[in-house]
Design goal:
There is one protein chain. The chain is α+β, with helices and mostly antiparallel strands. It has 2 domains: about 110 residues, no CATH class; about 70 residues, no CATH class. Strands 1-2-3 form a 3-stranded antiparallel β-sheet. Helix 1 packs across helix 3, helix 1 runs parallel beside helix 5 and helix 3 packs across helix 5.
Length: about 190
């Protein structure tokens, strides 16, 4: 019976940590979790358990582990000095199996910028000859339409018009951004 209660308390702890860490539920506090789930533990022992479970959940969620990755990760954790117990491993596996999709969606929603780009369309307009057969000296024009959306709101549309010089400038800026990203990712 004690094992069943311990397993329930551990599962509830994982859910409480997820509520705070992934779902931004500010009502869940470390003190509440300790008082409700592990009143018999000292503050120091509870804090160690809480931090261990929080760190493991963060690692699992950050890697968005599938079943095989999770199994390998948890097996490695059980072999570490001060690692996780078989009971903790089972609770983590059960939690992740049930919550993976929801946690992933929450993390994705938190990482999106607002407004987000929902759609993009573009075209190039060429000036046709006038009735005398002469064309305008302005040259081709690129028209870009962006559909921007915010959660729970109607989309907004932004229409941009570029001449050849503006297109070239935008392409150079995008190349600069890509170079910056590449430098950051390939740092020694």
């Amino acid at each position: 019976m004690a094992d069943v209660e311990a397993t329930k308390s551990l599962s509830s702890l994982l859910n409480g940590i997820a509520q705070k860490m992934f779902y931004q539920n500010s009502e869940i506090t470390e003190e509440l979790l300790k008082d409700e789930l592990f009143p018999e533990l000292s503050q120091e022992d509870f804090r160690a358990l809480h931090e261990k479970m929080k760190g493991l959940l963060k690692s699992i969620a950050t890697a968005d582990m599938d079943h095989a990755q999770l199994e390998a990760f948890l097996t490695a954790q059980t072999r570490k000095q001060g690692g996780v117990s078989a009971e903790q491993t089972a609770a983590l596996a059960r939690f992740w199996k049930n919550q993976r999709v929801r946690v992933r969606e929450s993390l994705l929603a938190q990482s999106r910028w607002e407004p987000s780009l929902k759609a993009l369309s573009w075209r190039v307009d060429l000036q046709a000859a006038d009735s005398r057969g002469e064309t305008s000296p302005s040259g081709p024009v690129a028209i870009m339409e962006l559909e921007l959306s915010r959660a729970g709101q109607d989309s907004e549309f932004l229409c941009l018009e570029f001449d050849e010089a503006n297109v070239n400038q935008a392409l150079r800026k995008m190349a600069d951004i890509q170079d910056s990203i590449d430098r950051i990712l390939h740092r020694p």
